[in-house]
Amino acid sequence: MDPLKEAAAIKSEVSRVIASTAYQTYEKRLLKEVKEHTVPHHVAVIMDGNRRFAKEFGLTPTEGHIKGKDKLEEVLDWCMELGVKVLTVYAFSTENFDRDLDEVDSLMQMFEDNFYRLAKDERVHRHGIRVRVLGQRELLPDNVIRAIEVAESATAEYSNFYYNLATAYGSRQEIIHAIKQIAKQVKSGNLDVEDIDERTFSSYLYTADLPDPDLILRTSGEERISNFLLWQLAYSELYFTDVYWPGFRKIDLLRAFRSYQMRQRRFGK
Question: For the whole model, what pTM was predicted?
Answer without folding.
Answer: 0.90
